[in-house]
Amino acid sequence: MANVSIIIPVLNEASCLGRTLRYLRILEPACAEVLVVDGGSSDDTAAIARAGGATVIQSVQRGRAAQMNAGAEWASGDILCFLHGDTLLPDDAIAVIETTLANPQTACGGFISVMAGAQTTRWGITLHNSLKTHYAPLLFRPHLYCLKGLRLLFGDQVMFCRKTDFWACGGFETTLPIMEEADLCLKLCRRGRIRQVNRVVQSSDRRVVQWGPIKANFIYLAIGFLWGIGMPAAALKQFYADVR
């Protein structure tokens, strides 16, 4: 069994969590544990998590950053992997994570996220989100991109890092309601390179279904640009409502 703890922050994810956990049960090698950190769900999320073999943690503070920190505090593994409740991992994900972090010069990694739903795969948004990992830091932090290996990873890319590096940076910033993963990348790049591995995970397109492709692409682009030029994350959150 690999020494990787998978941490899933959730809030009312009953519609998709069961499928995500089924994919985790066929990981080879298996992870050390699956920690589902609940922010106060009013549906069957916690029951589904327990039935799926996960350990359920009730977070005192709601919010992805705080919930992921709570999971990291509980984690027994030396490697932390942060997974969204609507994202599916390949069965060899643990081996990919361990191989990536076997390089001591790598501090953090993430996958290429393919956005898909029951009827379609969002290839255009998938391509843009993958390229954003590179062009966003190149545009806004070019010195870190070129000299320190900064890449900006986002939640649906399934970020992973060593627990020692995570806490040495202070973990996720709990005051940030959005862009907490990108903020962590900025901190982790002081400890090593950030890598986007050449493997894919599948994330739900539910935001695109609700917003429509044009509006979704505009929101993704606008939030990244405004954050890059210094707009506070709290102000950006109003444009990125929760979708379940």
TrEMBL record:
Pathway in which this enzyme or protein is active: Carotenoid biosynthesis; staphyloxanthin biosynthesis; staphyloxanthin from farnesyl diphosphate: step 4/5
Molecular function as annotated in GO: glycosyltransferase activity
InterPro entries given in the database record: Glyco_trans_2-like, Nucleotide-diphossugar_trans, Trfase_2_rSAM/seldom_assoc
Gene Ontology CC: one annotated term: plasma membrane
UniProt entry keywords in alphabetical sequence: Cell membrane, Glycosyltransferase, Membrane, Transferase, Transmembrane, Transmembrane helix
Keyword Chaperone listed: no
Main location as per UniProt: membrane
Residue ranges of domain Glycosyltransferase 2-like in the record: 5-133
Membrane spanning stretches: 218-236
CDD domains in the record: GT_2_like_a
Subcellular location field: Cell membrane
Record's function text: Catalyzes the glycosylation of 4,4'-diaponeurosporenoate, i.e. the esterification of glucose at the C1'' position with the carboxyl group of 4,4'-diaponeurosporenic acid, to form glycosyl-4,4'-diaponeurosporenoate. This is a step in the biosynthesis of staphyloxanthin, an orange pigment present in most staphylococci strains.
Protein name in the entry: 4,4'-diaponeurosporenoate glycosyltransferase
